Amino acid sequence: MADVLIIGYGPAGISAALYALRSKLDVLLVGKDVGALEKAHLIENYYGLEKPMTGVELAETGKKQALALGAKIMDDELTDLFFDGKEFVATGLKGEYRGRACIMATGSARKKQPLPGMAEMEGHGVSYCAVCDAFFYRGKNVAVLGSGEYALHECNELLPVVGSVTLLTNGAELTANFPETVKIEKRPLKALVGTSALEGVQFEDGSEARIDGLFVALGSASAMDLARKAGAAFENGSAVLDSDFMTTVPGLFAAGDCTGGTLQVAVAVGEGAIAGLAAIKYLRGVRETAG
C-alpha cells in the first residue's frame, strides 16, 4: 500500500507526486494515458521551456522526473474506487491499488455530448454510478450507455440487483465481452423520454424502449465518476472541494482539468502542488492522531 495513491500521471498528478516524494512519502501513480496533453502539438506558453515541446515530450519528462525521485507508475484503466475508512482501494483491469490518501488527477473527461433530455433527467432516472444507485432499481429494468470495459463494470454491478440490464452502445462497436444476460442494443439513440422522470429512450428510427433507469458509462471512468463511487458529495454536477482541493471524503483530493476551470498545464501543475501539499498535511495529521 502506498502513502499516496495518485490517479493520473499528467501534469497535475506528477506535480502532486513531486511534493509528496520530497516529503519521503511512498507514491504510486496509476493512469491510462496523459489525456489531452497527448494531443498537444507544441507547447510554448509554459514557464521554463527554452524551446517548444510536444505534449508527449512534456509528459515523458514529468514521468522521468517522478521516477527519479522514487515514484512507482502503473499503466491501467480504473473502473472503481472506494474508501473503507482507513485506505482507498482502486480497482483496475490489471489489478488493485491502495493508498492512505488519494489524489484524482485524470484530466477532464471530454466525453461525447449528452443526449437531449439527459441533463434534465440526472437524479431522476439518469445515474453515473452503479455501485451508488443500483439499490434504487431493485427488480427494475435499466440500461447502461457505453460499449467498453467501464460499461462492462457497471453492468456487472447492476446484474445481481436489478430486473434486467440492456447495453445501449448508441451505434458504437463493442470493445469488451459482455455476459449473455445483458441485452445488447446497438441502434443509434435520438433522445431520452420522460417528463418529471425518465421513462425510456428513443432511437433514431423513431422507435422507443421503456426503461426505469439509465447508467452512463461512456469511455473510461473519469475522476468525477470515481469520486462518486468513493462517496464524495456533489453540487450542480461538480464535486464539492475545499481550498486544499479535498472532497468531502477525508484524504480524497482532486486536481487539474477534472476540477473544471481553465484547462491549462500551468493551472494543472499549480493545483497538483496544492493537493500534494494538502495530502502531506493530511497524512501527518492521521499519524499524529494514531500516535
Structural commentary:
The protein contains 7 helices and 17 strands. It is globular, with a radius of gyration of 20 Å. Helix 1 (11-22) packs parallel to helix 7. It is an alpha/beta fold and 291 residues long. Helix 2 (55-68) links the parallel strand 2 (27-31) and strand 3 (72-75). The strands form 4 sheets. Strands 1, 2, 3, 4, 5, 6 and 17 form a 7-stranded mixed β-sheet that branches.
Please outline the helices and strands.
Blueprint: E1 2-7, H1 11-22, E2 27-31, H2 55-68, E3 72-75, E4 78-83, E5 88-92, E6 96-104, H3 118-121, E7 126-127, H4 130-133, E8 141-145, H5 149-158, E9 164-168, E10 182-185, E11 189-194, E12 198-203, E13 208-210, E14 213-216, H6 223-230, E15 234-235, E16 238-239, E17 252-254, H7 265-290
Parallel strand pairs: 1-2, 1-6, 2-3, 6-17, 7-14, 8-9, 8-14, 9-10
Antiparallel strand pairs: 4-5, 5-6, 11-12, 12-13, 15-16
Radius of gyration: 20 Å
Weakly predicted, low-confidence segments? none
Q: Report how far the terminal alpha carbons are from each other.
A: 20 Å
Give the oligomer, counting copies of the same chain as homo and different chains as hetero. single chain
The total count of strands amounts to: 17
Helix content: 25-40%
What is the makeup of the main sheet? 7 strands, mixed
Could you say which overall geometry the principal axes of the C-alpha atoms support?
globular
Number of helices: 7
Assess the beta-strand content as a share of residues: 25-35%
Overall pLDDT level? 90
Order of helices and strands: EHEHEEEEHEHEHEEEEEEHEEEH
Structural class by SSE content: alpha/beta
